[in-house]
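User: I'm writing a short report section on ligand binding and want a predicted complex to refer to. Could you take this sequence and 2'-deoxycytidine-5'-monophosphate and write out the structure as tokens? A short remark afterwards would be nice.
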Amino acid sequence: MPGLVLGTRMEQAIMSDWTPVAGLRIAIDGPSGSGKGTVAKLVGEALALPVLDTGLLYRFLGWLSSERQADIADENAVLKLLHHVISDIEWRAEGIFFENRDCTALLRGEDVGASASKVAAMPQVRHVLLELQRKLSGQGCVMDGRDIGTVVLPEAEAKFFLTASQRERARRRWAQLNQGDSEVSLQQIVEDLKTRDARDSGRECSPLEKAKDAIQIDSTTLRIDEVVDRVLAVLERRALIKRV
Ligand code: DC
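Assistant: Sure. The structure tokens for the complex follow:
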């Protein structure tokens, strides 16, 4: 089993204004650019819970497939690569470490996102990564992705599904990428987003889908802190968290 690392509850609890019930698992799903990653991070910080970005696992495998020249159209080739490297992957709340190197920054680009979306459509790959995700959720966490509420943690105590208009999601992604030295046009992002949305929602295995018991939040016109406040308000109302 690859390295699985989480900080201890004692270390994390020092900084929080809230106390979550023991083992609280919060699933946050949504399409690219819906804000789920940022919301997950802020909710995790507010509750002193580890935040696990499951997209990084698919991004890592997409990235490694090109690095090691595995044919990304061939599920068996990608699966073989995954089995070969799995014991060297450390998935931490801070990111992905491979062969003791932090790879997280390498995984954020648009090209890696496109490869990730292809490997994420492979049922056997998802099966292997599913085990990893469940294993880490045990002590309580905020986990974000596409199928957390439906497949990975169907028994999660709280589930949220974030949405935003396609235009707004593309604008956010564009702004994020243009903070770096990327020169991707907004139109290019809109096109990429449409392709990824179609692939993530249309695939047979674990498509992007709102769990029946998830609370949907449309963040198109909301600031990030307003979304976080709504999430915390729901958790407090359900007695899943308490102010310290
Ligand atoms: O959230 P992200 O952009 O980092 O995700 C990268 C890709 O991985 C995206 O195409 C969707 C896919 N993914 C998935 O299928 N299931 C998850 N739980 C998380 C991400």
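A remark for your report: The two ends are 37 Å apart (CA to CA). The CA atoms of residues 24 and 140 lie 5 Å apart.
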